[in-house]
Specification:
The chain has 468 residues and is α+β, with helices and mostly antiparallel strands. It has helices spanning 11-24, 112-115, 175-185, 216-222, 229-248, 289-295, 299-302, 311-326, 337-348, 378-381, 391-398, 409-412; strands spanning 28-35, 40-47, 70-75, 90-91, 99-101, 134-142, 146-153, 159-166, 195-200, 204-210, 214-215, 261-263, 269-271. The relative contact order is 0.10. It is built from 12 helices and 13 strands. The strands form 3 sheets. Strands 1-2-3-5-4 form a 5-stranded mixed beta sheet, with no helix packed on it. Strands 6-7-8-10-9 form a 5-stranded antiparallel beta sheet, covered by helices on one side. Strands 11-12-13 form a 3-stranded antiparallel beta sheet. The protein folds into 3 domains: 2-115, no CATH class; 131-210, 2-Layer Sandwich (Phosphorylase Kinase, domain 1); 215-436, Transferase(Phosphotransferase), domain 1, CATH 1.10.510. Helix content is 24%, strand content 16%. A hairpin with a 3-residue loop joins strand 9 and strand 10 (204-210).
């Protein structure tokens, strides 16, 4: 306003301007008013040169960058900058990003713009990032490092899964928990479990996930003898979709198994438990962590290889694929690594340098320890693969002893096995579930004519053993 003042202003206006300068002090300059929608005016006050205003002095004002502005708020009816002294203001933020609130007699309400910078009106209002923002409903699982609870958010009322990781004072936060939290914060995909919140206290680190009521292990337990082939196809497609997304971001899951694949009540499959290949925070309800992990571990890692890539996960995909179709684990080793490898070689053949270059140089490979088996067709071990078009060929591409021969997740999604699915599935955005596509839905798990049906439990009812 000062720089717009003509030099020939009447005496009374010049007097008002001088009074304003005295009120706001010589450390402020230009005043601009901006009306907002709730009868509050916002005054943007910028720092002023000690030189006098243009029109009273021939020297121009200094130019002040936008980030040096001080934000002031007032009520239109009760504050006049030409009349009220500056000591009427209450500073709620400091320095160059200050929000100053002028209390008005006619309103009694604070500006919505100020409210955005303030905490909720009630000091007891629930907030994200606080332990008391969530109510624990029931325990879902417990392990050496963490306990998982079904919970409810007091902020929005939604169900959540609370993974409470116990912290040891002398050890600090487990690296695996840090890894899981950091990875999941950057992964946004409909086939990856969503991390809502992180709560850190002296005693615990709590990861707050979206609540998913069951997992693939429980789902298969409810439907023994093998799943409906159409459902297997949808579950496998979603698994590959989630893995393709993570692999393109140079992230390996490293612990693929049915317990770590969550199934929602609509049939969405979601990858969970990232970065927990060593320290299992939630146990299997059927087997020890060590034995279960062995079942889905590829032969190169069993033989001591540490030079692995996305092929590590793709072996697990093959094992899970076979298990969904056949109704039994592909390689259920019951003793140790030696027993696990024997079960693999019995079907895929004992490796040689010809079919697996470099196998003899692996730390734990000793030819004299293994029976010499020849390779078999997968349907000889798992007959139901032969009942579904292209299933055996796809499983064979996953279950390759030589890691470099395994099919990638992205390539597998283009396999002929999926040729009867709607083309729209390949066009979905990352956050769009496959079930948003017309006619894509789970089928009944009864009477498919392929597997031997066990007792049929209603889908989506049992959530007592969910794992995250």
């Amino acid at each position: 306003m000062c720089d717009l003042m003509p030099a020939t202003q009447p005496t009374e206006k010049i007097g008002k301007m001088k009074k304003l300068r005295r009120t706001l002090s010589e450390s402020f300059s230009r005043i601009a008013f901006k009306k907002d929608d709730s009868n509050f005016d916002e005054i943007c006050v910028t720092k002023m040169s000690t030189r006098s205003c243009q029109g009273m002095d021939s020297k121009p004002l200094d130019t002040i960058p936008e980030d040096k502005k001080v934000r002031v708020q007032r009520t239109q009816s009760s504050f006049d900058p030409f009349e009220k002294p500056a000591n009427q203001v209450k500073r709620v933020h400091s320095e160059n990003n200050a929000c100053i609130n002028f209390k008005g007699s006619s309103s009694g309400k604070e500006s919505p713009k100020l409210r955005r910078h303030s905490s909720p009106s009630s000091p007891t209002s629930p907030k994200f990032g606080k332990t008391d923002s969530y109510e624990k409903l029931e325990k879902l699982g417990e392990g050496s490092y963490a306990t998982v609870y079904k919970g409810k958010s007091k902020v929005n009322g939604k169900l959540v899964a609370l993974k409470v990781i116990r912290l040891q004072e002398e050890e600090g936060t487990p690296f695996t928990a840090i890894r899981e939290a950091s990875l999941l914060k950057g992964l946004k995909h409909s086939n990856i479990v969503l991390l809502h919140d992180i709560i850190h206290t002296k005693e615990t680190l709590t990861l707050v996930f979206e609540y998913v009521h069951t997992d693939l292990c429980q789902y298969m337990d409810k439907h023994p003898g093998g799943l409906n082939p159409d459902n297997v196809k949808l579950f496998l497609f979603q698994l590959l979709r989630g893995l393709s997304y993570t692999h393109q971001r140079y992230i390996l899951h490293r612990d693929l198994k049915p317990q770590n694949l969550l199934i929602s009540d609509t049939g969405e499959l979601k990858l969970a438990d990232f970065g927990l290949a060593r320290a299992k925070s939630v146990p299997s309800h059927t087997y020890s962590n060590e034995v279960v992990t062995l079942w889905y571990r590829p032969p190169d890692v069993l033989l001591g290889s540490t030079d692995y890539s996305t092929s590590l996960d793709m072996w697990g995909v093959g094992c899970i694929f076979v298990e969904m179709i056949q109704g039994i684990a592909a390689f259920p080793g019951m003793k140790d690594i030696q027993d696990q490898l024997e079960r693999i070689f019995l079907i895929l053949g004992t490796p040689t340098e010809d079919i697996w270059p470099g196998v003899h140089s692996l730390p734990h490979f000793k030819p004299e320890l293994f029976t010499q088996y020849s390779q078999k067709k997968l349907r000889q071990a798992w007959n139901k693969l032969g009942y579904v078009n292209h299933a055996e060929e796809l499983a064979t591409r996953f279950l390759q002893c030589f890691p470099k021969n395994r099919l990638s997740a992205q390539a597998a999604m283009k396999h002929e096995y999926f040729s009867d699915l709607p083309p729209r599935l390949w066009e979905l955005s990352d956050m769009s579930p496959v079930f948003t596509v017309h006619n894509v839905k789970l089928q009944s798990e009864t009477g498919d004519g392929i597997r031997v049906c066990g007792k049929n439990n209603s889908y989506g009812k049992d959530s007592s053993n969910n794992q995250h």
